Amino acid sequence: MDPIKIIRDHVVNGTIANSTNDDTFIYVDDVSFYRKGQTNYKTVRGYLTVEAVWRFARVFAADPDKKHAEYMKETIADKFANVSTLDRKDLWAYLSGEKDSSAKIDITMPAYVVPEEEKRDDATMAEADDEPAVHPLHTRNSILQCDKDFSAILGFFGAKQVDKKKREREQQVVPLPTNRFGDVKEEQFYREAMGKDMLEMGIDPNMSFLDNKRQRLPQMSEADRLRGEALLGGGARAGTQRKVSSSGKQQRKDPVAGQRPIIIVPAGYGNKVLFNMYNAPEFLAKEKLVTWESMHKAGAKKHSSITLKRKYKRPKSKQYPEGHVKYEITDKPPDKKDSKSWARVVAVFVSGKEWQFKDWPFKGADEGDLVETFNKVRGFYAKYDVDTPAEVIKKWNVRTLSFQKNVRHGDRAQFEAFWDEVDKHLELKRSQLKY
After folding, report:
1. SS3 of 113, please?
2. Which of 163, 165, 357, 403 is deepest in the core (most CB within 10 A)?
3. Per-residue pLDDT tens for 16-57?
4. Residues 1, 113: contact at Cβ < 8 Å?
């Protein structure tokens, strides 16, 4: 995702003033970028950060004639990275739409690189990164300047040759034939182990299972049976139990049976987004809509994942001994290859943007075809009653939750509608999750 292009689109459309920031992120519409993330706009001092481009765009979009010295003074005071006067003219011409490209944008570098310290934090927290791994492209000149010492490579192939010769020698070694128990007579073995030989136990060693004229064997005594089980280490009884269990019809167990369901909310902070990680847990647990803007201004801490205790229609009983069930609320979808975590995803709040589902594993999600996605996961679209939903919402199989903008009496009805719809979806799927 290209932060400079997104910032440019908002400058041209006149909506850059609606974007916000905190100590870690820059929020532009429904997208968030790390402030210290690196863009591919190259200057003499290196590549500009996202916060430098965003701050520059906001200031000069509001006042294109502002003196650069004033801009520098305010930017440093607010602890933002700045854009030098040497780059001002070119950067502003591109951001304002005066020209369609800039020679200072390095197309051989990724458009956005997450800071290294943030990558380490994400690894420590065992959280999947939203952005795919990026690798800088190399030019022809950089490749020609590589180390000319090939000793490591030659050593590598030499080691492979040694391993190959070793395997050839091992294959030539043939194990010696052995007949460890060849001198033990069968009758002697049974007499020493069981106290009787085969004939005394009623077993004819010359008989065949395919012989239709075979004699009926006498019933083995309880003492002989116990002696046989002691000799085989309980194998006879265990074998009988396995045979019984395998003959019965076995029910296939769901690998996520009894686990905690997952609800995904948007990661964005646009004015059309009613729920994110600031206020979604508050609504789903306490049935009251508190705007994320007010919680953000009040200093509420944003978590990427939180455990919610659902008490609605879960009274204390034999089925729910604790009087609640736990759900996981997150704005970071599982890794595309993590099928077990995706099997736990039961609901999603949509933002109206198709790219919200670009990394989802369901058929057609990457191309914007969300039929299978909303068949697997129940979708919800939250909006104010005075707002008009995006056209794409009418094409999606999602449930719309409509809230009054200035009155909170109707929040309870939307709260109940959400949980009832989730229960209905899971019952139809015969889900074995603990919901």
Report:
1. strand
2. 357
3. 988 999 989 999 878 889 999 999 999 988 999 999 999 999
4. no
